[in-house]
Structures
1.
Amino acid sequence: MGGINNRTLLVGAIMVFIGLVFVIKLFILQVYDPSYKFSAESNTRRKVTQYPSRGLVYDRNGKLLVSNQAVYDVMVVPREIVPFDSLDFCESLGLSMEELHDRFVEMRRNIRRRKISTYKPSVFLKQLSAEQYGRFQEKLYKFKGFFVQRRTLRKYEYPSAAHVLGYISEVDDAMLKKDGYYSQGDYAGNTGIEQTYEKELRGKKGVKSILVDVHGREKGTFRNGRYDTAAVAGKKLTLSLDIELQQYSELLMQNKIGSIVAIEPSSGEILAFISAPGYDPSLLVGRNRGSGFASLAQDSLKPLTNRALRGTYSPGSAFKLINAAIALQEGAITEQTKFRCDGPVSNPIRCTHYHRSPIEVAGAIETSCNPYFYQAFKQTLERPGVNTRDGYLSWYNHVRSLGFGDRLGIDIPYEKKGNVPRIDYFDRYYGKTGWRAITVRSLAIGQGELLVTPLQMANQAAVIANKGQYYRPHIVKAIENESLAENYSQPVISTVEPANFEEVIKGMHQVYTGEIGTARYYRNDTIPMCGKTGTVQNPHGEDHSVFIAFAPKENPKIAIGVVVENAGYGSTWAAPMATLIMEKYLSGEIPRRHIYYEKKMLEADFIHGKQ
């Protein structure tokens, strides 16, 4: 009996041992080494990411600006690859044998670096067209380990507004670590609204499980789609941009370097946003994106640079309007205060325009009288009972409150601050008691250390149009089922009271209507306009042509800033361009008497030296 028990125990032990071996083996196959699980699953089903369509983009009038087009990525699961006819593979995809070799070398390198897995799908070849996909799909069964995945790319309906829209590019390692939404080979917005509103535009990925045979051919959905999740399209954006005004403004700026920004003063909505030279956004889409980007990046004219946000200039005479408003606010001058612009009192800044003398503030704006604004600036900083440092600090705080020296907060990335020099800047150079108004006199006429962006110039016009307040400039007017950020709907109130802009506006109107107004040739008899010319000194070449304006005078609908680099007088180039754009927006046409100026602007070529 004892022998039987021993044999029974022995047999039982053997059975238990064999069972443990099977359990351990199954554990290794299913848990410890998941590659077997993935390999087994891939013989029955394949999980395919369903990429959502990015949100559509429209202009303020409902015109479609950006849509989507289907492309197809060739995916690969490295462990599943078996020897195949490489010549047939290359002919199907339009690849050379060298390109195929390079792609396999890159794939092996990425596997060694653990950037991709041998048992999970990764991108082998990006962005096949529908025609290429159809040709490859017919032979796909020959190439085990490969399959095709659909995604969408941007399609631009107009060759315009590239700096506003931005572009899409493949996510880098930093983005992969920062946001778990993305996987290797995904795309995200880069610059422009595509970057700022990436989370709204990108939508939500879905997953579809597909049954496949041993050759990788699709045999239908897995369990009738029970485990599938649908992709959710990105949200629609409506821009404040008027695409017709945008295109017209770009046309005026062809063969020129500079910027145009037009704003609706009552809302801060940007109507036109030009950085010239620009480029066709379609150049940065599809398989030719790399060569397109390289060409633009190597262009000596730097078309990728967003000059409207990142170009900084002295504002020149356009800034005299700010100095006038501050001088009135501080009581340094009144509407009737007159200064002469000839003789010793005008030194050290001389007048560059012929006009009557002495002259009051509105007349000084009309004629752009340099000595007047130096005297007003000097009175602001050194009026009785106020020392220079305290006077300068008051001036500085007013200037900052009017939107200078800091980012305005536009919803396009990489905006520059510009510069309004602080007191400690002058202290470092001259000592705390070593400088006075005469030392910093260049600020009186918008030169010296003062730097502004074209966006800030346009915003200055909006501030004056609104008599001392502005709405933060923004490009997006509406987001599908969402509200805009609150800071775009709340006005920014400056420290300069509304009454102190009345005389400034009067002078700006006289720039168009006065007998010697610097923009008198561009007067519109049906639209009362207000503007200010600027000829900005440029140590690197010809002066820059600057003009800011708004219209109509009462209840303004558009404010604008124009900078044309190396073009000379503001009255000759920037002023007529701004006037034409305002006329186009407000009435839809150019008056017959201004057709000559339109033709002149369209034909001018400052890049190739033809004027």
2.
Amino acid sequence: MIEERHGIDFAEHQRPSVTDTLDAAAGQRWRTIIDHGSALTLYTLLAIIASWPLAPSFTSAMIGAVEGVDAYQCAWNLWWVADSLRQGHLPFTTALLYYPYGIDLFWQTLQFSQGVAALPITLLLGPLAGFNWTVLTSFVIGGYVTFLFARHVTGHTQAALVAGMIFAFSPYHMQKMVDGGLEVTAIQWIPCYWFALYMLLERPRWQLSLLSGALLLWVSLGSWYYGLFCVLTTACAALVWLLVPGSVDAPGEQQQRWRWPDAKRWISAIWGVTPLIWWGLVLTPRIISLTAQPDALGDMRRIQADRSADLMDFFLPNPLHPLWGEALRAAREQLYPNAIIWNISLGWVGLALGLIGVFTAWGHARRWLALLMLTMLLAMGPTLRMFGHNTGLPLPFTLIQNLPGIRAAQRPSHLVVIASLILAILAAYGFAWLSQRLPTRSLRLAITTGALGLILAFDTYAGPMQLVSRTVDPFYATMPPPPAAAPGRPSGAVMPLPLYLNINLSENLTTQMTHHWPILGGYVARPPTYTFARYTPGVRELEGQLPPLDDVVSPGWPESGQRGLAAYAIRYITFDLTSNKNGYFARVRHHAELLQLGQPIFADKQLEVYAVPQTWPVGPIGYLGAGWQDLEQAPPYRWRWMGEQAELQLFNPLDHPVRATIDLLAASYQQPRPLELRMDASILTRLNIPTDKPQMQSLSFLLEPGEHKVTLSAPATPDRQRSDVPISVRVFALGFRFAELRKGP
């Protein structure tokens, strides 16, 4: 009997010499080095080709649609992760955005994993280089780990090379690169997790369970979309390994048929869900807080159907291809007018090889096929859509649609990234079968080269990439470091205009990467409730609102605006003249003149910069918050109505408490009404507001440092003259006075 291994024949009765054994081991090591080096080199070269001309502009430009809106936001994420880790603290919260409150970035598109992986590049060459490094390595690492995965599963090196390219260079991945969203472009961590999960399902061990759990967390911190989808498909994988028989490996063993799961399959399935346990334990505090506020991340269920996959989308040819892409996109537009996020093509080469794999390696492929079908079903969202028609037929996604976290996921179609990985494994089986039919090594090399070339030319190629690069005005580099009252607690900010609140524009993030100052507003995927610019005197007027001339509040404009800017330590106001908002800036300049900001300290064709005078006194302020109706006048009187509730905002910027006094002149609607004043969680007082002959009432209390909210509450009655809008109390005068506490003898 002759056994063939690595191309060398050994007879059973022969015993190789020590020299032969060492030579064989050395040869095997060299073949391993060549295999791995070839795979890495191949994917690197292909990544450069697919993203060309990105490489020559590695430190100066990025790929990103819509003038780089998302690309520059993602570059900011890399910059912030690198900067915060360099300073020795975690980046999951920041005081740099939405000043003065800051923002929790944990559930945002922070891309922590990508930021850590690109940390040396970002620190050495800048955030644009870190962005481009991550884009290129998404192809290289994604392809290489898929190569390792497929080779482990199939035992075939050339088939594994093809599988790595099918996953890493899929039309979906190319679309994400074109869009500029690094969170979803970075697909490279997904095969890392799935490789570990597969090994856990096949050979359960606690070490693999912990490794899989850690990798699942790593995927999630890189992209909550991909983390969530890995959680869902992990449950699917455990179900498939439980219900679908495995492959036949032992010689002479008969093909396994479906039967009730035995103990081995139950053990495998139970071990398969343990990564979810470790993942959940680490995230328990965050998940509990999210469960308490299920819509804290937004409720996206109303748009999930529009951003789910149509059945035909999986099988479309590459929609980015320069030869037929435009015609294909136009044809699909006829079916789904104004559709977005629909390029989830699996690639025709991968589909063809996967189909061959299913038929030629059924015993090995059936579990992967079942998992692929489940993943595609989830990607199609709540109802089945086919060729532009919503059938209304409910799909499995409806069973989980209302869960916290999932209800905030607006892109079920992105599950195709996991479907692409599964298809790559099936394609590896198919290509291995084709390759084994060829008699010579040269023919096998030729078909491998042909398959790789066909994938690149047909499923991957999208033409030369369009690069974006923004110019930052040199003034920002000359700004002094931001002051800090304590480490990590800045006490000053830049107000960049326009603020772009709740508008998908990232220009203010771009300049912040140069000047490093906290800014008002910001651009994140899930904007927080941010009323600072709506109510704060000085800020609201410079943001574009009309000054509240002759309002019921005293001190009035413009003194209130000066006090507001000084109290909140807003140091600079910048005008981005490249925004083409000439009318807006003309209005804001008038407000700045009324505030007596003075002349700009810097001005060119792109930028104007004003410095808030340091002579303005810093002290406590009070102003109107939410719940107040518009100012009304009937000379000599003026007033504002409130409904059931209205708010007053108080801010003490000092490091010690002061005595605050609120003076209130008010009358109630139709009948006397009780008015309760509550500061934060404590009741200040209850007043009885008469219907006529209002009397000035004063309330004094201790105001601690920081922000406080005084809530006014009174029973309200619908007013027919106001379309039944409820009203309760109208305020004719509202004054805020602050005094230092008297010191003892």
